Amino acid sequence: MKRLAGWMLSSPATLAVSLFLIIPVAATISVTFTAPGGVFAPYVEFFSSGFQRTVLWRTFEVAALTTIMALFFGLLTAYVVSRCPPWMKSVLIVLAVFPLLTGVVVRSFAWLIILGRNGVLNNTLEWLGVIERPMALLYSQTSVVIAMIYIFIPLMILVLIGVLENIPDDLLQASSSLGASPTATFVQIILPLATPGLIVGAVLVFTASFTSYATPHLLGGTRQMMMGTFLHQRAMVSFDWVSASTVAAIMVVVIVTTVLVMTRLAKRLNPMAS
Amino acid sequence: MKRLHTLGAATVSVAAMLSAAPALAQSETFVVSWWGFNGDALQEIIIDPFQEMCDCEVIFETGNNADRLSRLQLRSGEGVDVIYLTDRFSQLGIELGLFQPVDRAQVPNIDNLYSFAQAPQGEYGPAYSIGRVGIVYNADEVETPITSWNDLWREDLAGAVSLPGITTTAGPMVVLRAGERAGVDAYADPDAAFAGVAEIQPNVLTNYNTGSEMINLFSTGEIAVSMAQDFALGRLQSAVPSVAWADLDDGDIATLNTINIASGSENVELAHQFLNFVLSAEIQQTLAERGVDAPVNTGVDLTEEQAAGWTYGDEMISSLNFVDYGPMNANLDDWINRWNEIFGM
Asked: Residues of the signal sequence (chain B) (predicted)?
């Protein structure tokens, strides 16, 4: 009876997840298994193309680089914010979250203006005499990664502030009173306790970067095509829905695998979990 | 008091229903799918008078060629009565079975169009406007004027060129030009044509997908040369006055804008009436004078000033290169892959 009540209570949520998450994804992916040429033919075709392998690898590389950089800068920022007095903390959190209030396209455009040939960076460097003529900074992997870090780092900061705030001050004081250096305290106390937050932040940033469309499109162009932009090309321009669904399926597999690996890693690294 | 409130609310509801009655009385809803540019002018010149004629309500679906054609494909040709597309995409729609043949007898104004516009893709939609794809360049930054398609390969233009992406209307034309430069037919010998495309790669900073993107690239100083469609020239020169349309010895490339009747149209008769209306000399004349679309009706007479910027007049039209999109679409998947291999690696 108790079990039945549990099922009844969870059924609306289960239904919602099935309707809005599982069924659309399953419907998208199922197309790839019924394509002419065999069950796995679209996947064989995808991986037999050097260009498509490059796109997948490039997407993974950009997402991984963005995640690592966001982890580094996000942790530093979140640590500083979490140790601030309450009034200053509120101000800093609002500042950190503020970019999220504007759209991704607007934030990507901001980087077009900063990194452009007549942009802020080139103009400043020319004015300082560092360079003689403007450098071509846009449409490169670097410009995509820089913009992605800027766009997704608020997510990382928000997650980490919550985790770092929950680390008791007593622990840090105890560590310090036992003679640990600030670095040792950071590495041996703060970092392990922040691991769950780091993993959640990493998953969020990696997933968002891996699936992003607007930023790679605007700052990378066709020379830095990523899975999102490639999917758009296959679906909306080539009208090749099987190929587009194959790209979508590969993206889902990469993301689910990443989440599973990260969750497992979190369990292993988090001393509180065991 | 409560009863009074209820009565008041009921009165307001009835009044609202009555005020909506004229709209409900209109017998048909006619759906036009187009880009959405010049919306106000088109509403005034085409939609308002057509609504009066047909006693129908006209509603719109807007978006770029690919998006709208894709939506029509997802709905198996239903939900739209007539669709405006460039000829590259209307050919694709024909191949996908999304349009129905046009009954020429119901559209007598087709006979008054230039021959190239009457049936550019067989029995399907006529062209209602003509444009050009050519080369634009910033005359302040490019010392030697561009006079030929082959100039795109010039060494002094390294990193200064933006080409339209292969999936846009003008993109595949790069492949055709590369083939001509190599002295081969790009359809018959894609290896040689794409070897030519690979040779231009060092000059190309990036490919663009929309006219606005291309204008931004000029405005921010990223590029000095590009391939462009003539409809973007006005906005481009407003943003960068030193941009010039190159006078090419080997001629610009023609692009036709077509109107087709969707295969699932519920108002086929109205759709034919719409086509006939849009192709009339009066409407074509007004559209040209108001700077909306270049005319294809032979009865349109423009002054030199009105014709400036349009693809207009026998001399200009005879100098254009026309493209057959049938074989192009048949090769496009292979071309997209080859293009990606060159520009996306």
From this structure: 1-25
